[in-house]
Write a structure and sequence with these properties.
Layout: E1 3-7, E2 10-13, E3 17-25, E4 33-39, E5 46-52, E6 57-59, E7 69-71, E8 78-84, E9 91-98, E10 112-113, E11 117-122
Parallel strand pairs: 2-11
Antiparallel strand pairs: 1-3, 3-8, 4-5, 4-9, 5-6, 7-8, 9-10, 9-11
Length: 123
């Protein structure tokens, strides 16, 4: 059974940074896409950044240059996302995984999801 566990959320001042991590337990396939998504109250879930087992990365225009995504070691280990925060960034951030997705920033293509980690920004 695949389990995704996120960590690293919290509260930070406007302009500050957090590092979010996601560990994929129990994933056995060679190919993997791991994405970070976020959902603010009253809004739809949106893609933030995705990385695959080849190291290809995909970013939403709103975060390009601010939310670099990376992975440690072999596929299905830790996937880190640095977050340089602005007032429009607070949300629940989710990690998701799939063997392959056609659209790397669209949540419906991802099969496995974590429970989420909350990110808040204060002035």
């Amino acid at each position: 059974q695949v389990q995704l566990v996120e960590s690293g959320g919290g509260s930070v001042q406007d302009g500050g940074s957090l590092r979010l991590s996601c560990v994929a337990f129990g994933y056995r396939a060679r190919s993997i896409y791991v994405g970070w998504f976020r959902q603010a109250p009253g809004k739809e879930r949106e893609g933030v950044a995705t990385i695959n087992s080849c190291g290809d990365t995909y970013y939403a225009d709103s975060v390009t240059g601010r939310f670099p995504i990376s992975r440690d070691g072999a596929a299905n280990t830790v996937y880190r996302q640095m977050v340089n925060l602005k007032p429009e960034d607070p949300a629940m951030y989710y990690c998701a995984a799939a063997a392959y997705v056609y659209e790397p920033l669209v949540p419906t293509g991802f099969q496995y999801w974590g429970q989420g980690t909350q990110v808040t920004v204060f002035p």
